Amino acid sequence: MELRNIKTFIHAAETESFTAAALREGYAQSTVTQQIQTLERELNAQLFIRSGRRVSLSSAGRELLRFARRMTALEQETLAKFHGTAEPAGSFFIGIIETLATSRYMTQIAAFMRNYPKVQLHVCVDTAPRLRRALVQGNVDLVILLDRMNENAQLRILHRCRSEVQFIAASNSAYVGHPIRLEELVNAPWILTERGTNYRKKLEDDLAERQLTLNERMEIGTSKTIIDFVEAGLGVSLLPAITVADAVHCGRLAVLNVTNYQIRMDLQILAADERWLPPPLALLAADVAAGWS
Hints:
The chain is of the alpha/beta class. It has twelve helices and eleven strands.
């Protein structure tokens, strides 16, 4: 069996599409079909169940996938062993949630790119659930997110750190400078992230248990714009502490002292459990995590 055929098989299995596998490999779709057919003849087994443009693994395909990942991991580990002193290089796909993409922790990624000019990163900004799925499917190699812990046997946690989500307002807001209860704050005009954002959903779920609702005035998809609007006095909001740290430090925003409610989540760097992590990505993950302390 040729490793190139094995790699194509893995990509087709992860994306459930010969077309997507061809795009990832830079092949014509007919080439992918031929490679899969070659594997099926060599193993005397049908690896995929075809259904229109989509494909799904057969029982034999699922069994092969475990061996295929071990084979490619061994190849990469062998190459890394004999090229271990080389400068980090390669093209990789990482995923990050929007509130982290606009935070000061991106400076760690920027510094990494300056230090290792032979590394090329393709960054996907999306929600935590979608990034987890992309990681499992092989569409990204590493994800950086802020979320509640979500056990998944297909993923492994490389780094983890607890992080607070904070209530914020303009520095001259009447809510600043004294303790306030959540029941009082819900009546303020709110500027919120898009519906379904993990910390917004937790807040709304907890409020529902208390039979409370937010006075939603505006919904905005980017945290940077939320910060600008809150600074302008248009309402209060809720964002991760790491996202608002710079704005609070320079006095643009103030953190509210909500005495009877708090949200904490986990900063997490995740990789796929069965896929070998290339040294440049392990180094990037360590650099980003070092900025969390």
